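Recall the central idea of this unit: under ordinary conditions, the amino acid sequence of a chain determines the structure it adopts. In this exercise we apply that idea directly, starting from the sequence alone.
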Amino acid sequence: MNKIRILLAEDELALAHIVRESLEHENFEVILCSNGEQAWQKYVECKPDILALDVMMPKMDGFEVAKYIRLNDKTTPILFITARSQPKDVVAGFESGANDYLKKPFSVEELVVRIRVLLSDNRLLQKSKVKKDESFSIGNILFNPHKNSIHQGIESWQLSSRESNILKLLCQQEQDVISRKSLLKTIWGDDNFFNARSLDVYITKLRKRLEADPNVQIINIRGIGYKLVW
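Accordingly, the structure predicted from this sequence is:
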């Protein structure tokens, strides 16, 4: 059986390689492009089964690539992967011919699921395809909460289970603020003074772990909580 061929266009090369490796691990064939012009050329040459396009790319953005494709191809699924998630951006994406829209940060598991759904005959996912081993893309860092590990390129670091649990909650907020009380109640079960001091220590540790990508930050929103941004 032939592998599903995915054209992945992403100009953040570290992130692109991480996603490609993850997709290849899922037995997909990945055609990697670093800009929109290259994505268009590779689409014409290779005729992929599905395209995953970043929106903000040099030479030609993802919207333009999709519009060119849709002039003659109405069926090949197109999925946008982007940090631009304002309603007007989502609308523009669908108007350009997209079938789906995935907001950064995203877990690789969610990306795989969306790809499988778009390629299925009835737009439904077979339950057997879903895996429990999810991971999150944070800038150019890949975080695997199941293995308590973070990766950047060939480098990897092990997290404690508590560090991993905190980082997972921050990722699940999708760059929104999560309150200190929510973190304390979820992880420690109590928001007392001693647990609050422990949380401060773990946040400091996580900040050091995430220095691998200088754009990734855990911001302290005074009096409220924390926000993971990049």
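The radius of gyration is 19 Å.
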